[in-house]
Amino acid sequence: MAKAARAAAAPLHSGLPDEIAIWEILVRLPPKSLLRCRAVCRAWRSATSARDFLLAHHARQPALPIACGDENGGSRYYLAAQLQPVARLDRAFCLCASCDGLLLLSEYSTATGDRFSICNPATRQYAPLPMRSDFIPLGMYRHRPSGEYRILMHREAGFLAIDGQDACYIFALGSVQPPRNIGWPQVRFSGVPVLLHGSLHWHLDKHRYLEEHWHLDKYRYLEEHWHLDDHMSRSNIIVVFDTRTETFRKICAPVVPDNNKLFEMDGMLGMSGFNDPGPIIDIWMMQDYENEVWALKYRVELKNADHLLVQFGRFVEHWNVAVASCDGDVLVLVKFGECLLQFDINGKLVCFNRKGLCLAQHRLKQTLVPHTFFPTLDGYSMNAWPFI
């Protein structure tokens, strides 16, 4: 027993104390490299499987844009800023939402409509979800008071709540309870949300919204339901869903051109917008979240745009653009023709990726932290179909 105790107390690496080997080196590795390290010995496997280590490891992973591609009837997902493959699936799934390394997928069937499922690419866990096909996911989040992972969604057009009104619903992963009606925020929104400061954020162009609802007494409607002050009435709006209280509110956004994108970078809320001619991409950052203070942080003018058009093809409609922080550098990803190009903050082309990839706007922050809801779901599998 004494010999076993001494062996257990032996350092993981003879030349380094465990505090450095574990908390300065291993914790920084990407998930695939860390899984390989577990094969070195039992001590390494034990140290890198502890929950506190896995939480710290997840916290250090970058949240990077996802690129998707179809391949022989299946789906492939990459971390776009690194072109690192994270999953290859045997079916053509549609990516609906992401949170804490989890991907919410849908697969359409003419017989049953959309069928939803959840997976963790890093651990290769997968399970179908008992979600009805007439729901549309708006976002996914972790409800910190309960620890549950939940999906915010609404009904498809034509499927209203029992009282005949539009409504949002919440579905908890692993729960046997039906989706819970939490009401409607009195304004329609869509798109990929940004999860930051415990809230989901969607950008809503107020003027576009008014154009879509021209038949209403438009300004009175917005004033009554959103209580817009003079400043907000001249600005765009960001719809915010507090994931702790599960209530909606609104904050202001900078006035930017069309085809703008919300994103999170270095713990701040950002928004990119395309200016023509140029082409120029403006990047705004919310420097003071509490007081809703925005500032124009970068203006990225793409170099040799005419040459890029000849070499790769025209800019994709709606300007498929993503901004990311990778290894301390700010990268701008833009879809030209069938290629996904990466530019640095000075507008210089860094590299271009293979054809057929599309930016999903969702971010993936990989994790090896085990989720307890997976084994509770019917059809749960690990390291099996649909992973290839």
Salient structural properties:
5-stranded antiparallel β-sheet; F-box-assoc_dom_typ1; 4-stranded antiparallel β-sheet; 9 helices; 41% strand; alpha+beta; F-box domain-containing protein; 2 domains; 17% helix; Neuraminidase; 388 residues; 25 strands; globular; F-box-assoc_interact_dom
Textual characterization of the structure:
The protein folds into 2 domains: 19-60, no CATH class; 61-212 and 235-382, TolB, C-terminal domain (Neuraminidase, 6 Propeller). Helix content is 17%, strand content 41%. The protein has helices at 2-9, 18-25, 31-37, 42-47, 51-60, 206-212, 218-226, 230-233, 305-312, and strands at 64-71, 74-79, 84-89, 94-99, 102-109, 113-120, 125-128, 135-143, 148-155, 168-172, 180-183, 194-196, 199-204, 236-242, 247-253, 261-265, 268-275, 280-288, 293-301, 321-326, 329-336, 339-343, 349-352, 358-364, 381-382. The longest helix is centred in the N-terminal third of the chain and has 10 residues, at 51-60. The two termini are 44 Å apart. This is F-box domain-containing protein. It comes from Triticum aestivum (Wheat). Residues 16-57 form the F-box domain.
